[in-house]
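Help wanted!
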Amino acid sequence: MRKAELVTAVLLGLMSLYFMWKAGEPPSWNPDVGRFANIGMIEGEGPGSGFWPFWLSAVMLVCCIWIFINGVRRTSPPSQSTEPFLDAYGRRMLALVGGGLIGFLILIEFAGFYGAIFVFMMYYLLVLGRHSVGVTLSISTALPVVCFFFFDVAMRIVLPKGYLEPLFIPLYEMFL
Amino acid sequence: MDVLIQLGSGILVALEPMNLGLAVLGVVVGLFVGAMPGLGSVNGVAILLPFTFVIQQATGSATSPMIFLAAIYYGAMYGGAISSITLGIPGASTAVATTFDGRPMALKGMADRALVTAAVASFVGGTISNVLFTAFAPPLASVALQFGDPEIFALMLLAFATFVGLGGDDIPKTIFSICFGLVLATVGFDIVSGEPRLIFFDSVEWFSRGIQFLVLAIGVYGIGEMIWTINSSRYGTSMANVDVSFSRIMASIRNFPEAWKGTAIGSFLGFFVGILPAAGATPGSLMSYGVAKMTARDPGQYGKGSVDGIAAPEAANNSASTGAMLPMMTLGIPGSPTTAVLLAGMVIWGLQPGPLLFSEQPDFVWPLIGSFYISNVVAVLVNLAFIPLFLWMLRMPFTILAPLIFVLSLVGVYAAYQNIYDVRLMVLVGFGAFFIRILDYPLAPAVLAIVLGPIAEPKLRQSLLFSDGDFSIFFTRPIAGPITVIAIILILLPLFKMIRNKIRGPSPAE
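Answered by r_m:
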């Protein structure tokens, strides 16, 4: 856990530096203004646009250094812990659940939300939950149907349907 | 007298069929959400916020969706006890202290008595806090009307300072979390100068519209928290045998007066702890349990199934949930992550939380306060009547609940903003939240900061514009000055403790 604490502090510290850099960026339409010109007071305007995010990011950077030092000195609970950051179960769970979620996002592009919901539920219930085929099929089918009637029909919020769009045309004619 | 008339008319509006139906539905959803391990009121409110747009469209007012969300909040406070007692796993962090005596009582075969004690204590706590809320909210709102930009910024600073000084989490991680939330709230275009800010990797599609609040809230509570729960609980729970019948429930209600002391402590202490921005229902319930134990005639009974040990935290978490609404509605400063989501909802529905709400939107405020009373009655009735149903629902495998929540989170965020980049960003936020949660980074301050950031920054900039960049404006004004000084003391409090411990050695309590 200690190694993860130190590595995370470094990564978040680098992110804070990046935020500071971005906060001081001049607007593209006014290239004459130098970087970091907006992080202080501007005559007659008060604090510039980068003032708030820049100094908050600077505080974040200081906190990351503080967290890192605590980690080195072993004064924070994670740096004292001998447990791994993620054990074998955690790594496997993250791969299966996280992988499923990423798959869901990718599938939305091709099969739309409803197709992706069906496949994701099938995967989760059958592979991860080890539920029976009957339970899996009924929940995986019912959920996209309920979502369709709630969003597309009741709320008139059309969710993306990807390549499955032609299948929904008869439904549009019936319900919309 | 005016307050009573307004409250009366508010209760009548809350009793209209649509609003009453939403209150009942919200309570049922809240009871379920609160009872499921890994889900709390904040998860329920955040995940269901996008769905309230349909309620607003149907009713044409912000009152009904708010009544629905407030009822979820209420119901979740009741529901947390169900899994604490029957599973030994707190349904939400607010019900952790209920486990201490609720579980031992259930293991002795008295789960029904523990459940009834929790429900009735919650009802009493909720009722007392509603009366306190009604009494305190209007005068506080009229005082707050005199606040200018420096005063409001000082209050925001105080809200964040309480997280640092009293939050109990790692100090640098808490400060990091607050600043991170505030920085993320600035992404997009600066409303003063119109300049683009923090368009990360120059990705206009992802960041030019700013980072939407729901993307972060649902990412943290719908995705990150769920993955964390799966990792920590490993899908495993075991339920105690519960024998529930009408006669046993009635007998337990008759015996409830034995728990009067814990209920009274929890009701009053919970309310005042709930008002504090960093506190909320979890420390309120833990503190009430501690005080009830400390003042008990026989503290040895605590931890073995004491009715006071159940009543104190349960009365407190309900009371604190109403207490947390007080600064949210009167000052525009949420007292807990759940009220932060509620506040964001109010902003989305076109309302401006703060002192003006009471004078300019009485048609919103009083029906909402009236609904607190109604939801409290509905919650205790539904809770007692449907204890067997909730016990059955608790047997739903987590492997079914988890994917349902993932789907609701993804679809909900898309429905709210209709932008696929927001959905992707939310999943990314969820993974990030999971990793830093393992390392004890508190996420609640970040969520609060995201809500308060867009209010705090303009107040700071306008104050400094007014004072020509002189920060002493926050110290020299009669109201802002003391608030800023208290905030600074709170921020420095951990430092004082550290120095004291170095000199004297740590106190036994620490």
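OP: Thanks! One thing I noticed: Chain A is about 70% helix and 0% strand.
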